[in-house]
Amino acid sequence: MLKNQPRNRPRNEKMFEELLLQPVDSDGHYAALWFGDQGSHEMYIAGYENAANTLLKIVKRKGADNTIIYPIMMLLRHTIELGLKDIITQAFKLGGKAQTKEETIWTTHDLDLLSQTLIEAMRGIVTLEGSWSDIRKFLHKWELADPCGLFARYCRDYGGKIISIPKGRNISIQKLVGPAKQTIDYLYGLNEELHEMRISH
Prior knowledge:
Mean pLDDT: 85
Oligomer: single chain
Strand content: under 5%
Helix content: 55-70%
Distance between the termini: 54 Å
Number of helices: 8
Order of helices and strands: HHHHHHHH
Largest sheet: none
Shape: globular
Radius of gyration: 19 Å
C-alpha cells in the first residue's frame, strides 16, 4: 500500500548537492543563476514559458503532435499560476496587508481562487484595467474545463477514474495558446508595475 509523503517533507541537502549541483565554472549545461528578487519566481516563470514556446515551435514546424499538447498545457498553466502567486505575494507586502492567504495560495493550483485573491491583494495598490476582465473569464473557464490542471498532468482523476475525451473530438492548441499568452503578458506588465512601486518605496 502506497503511503502519501507529507507535503512539507524537508529537502535532503546531501542528495540535492549530489544529484543537482555543480561548481559555477563547470562546463556543460546548467541552470541560470538567480535573477530578480530573492524569493521571486521570475527565473521559474521565464523557464516554464520558454519551454512552452520551444514546444510550440516544434508543433508549428512538424504539424500536429498528439503527445506534446499535454506538456504545453501544463507549462502554460504553471507559468500563469506562478505569475499569479508571485504578484499576490508582492501585492500583500506592498499593501502591508495580513497575509492570511499566503499558505493557501502556495498549496493550490486553482486558477479561480488565485485570480480572486489577486483582485483582493491588488485593491488599493494597482487598478486591474485593460484586458483583465477577459483574462478573468478565461481563467474561470480553464478552471472549469480542467480543475487544478489535472487533465494536463494525468489521464485519470485522483480517484483513478479515466478522464475521457468525447469520441470524434480532439484537443485544440490554438484555442488555448492565444488567451494563455495574453494572460502571461498581462501578468508580466503587472509584475513590472509592482517592481517599480517597490523601488520607489
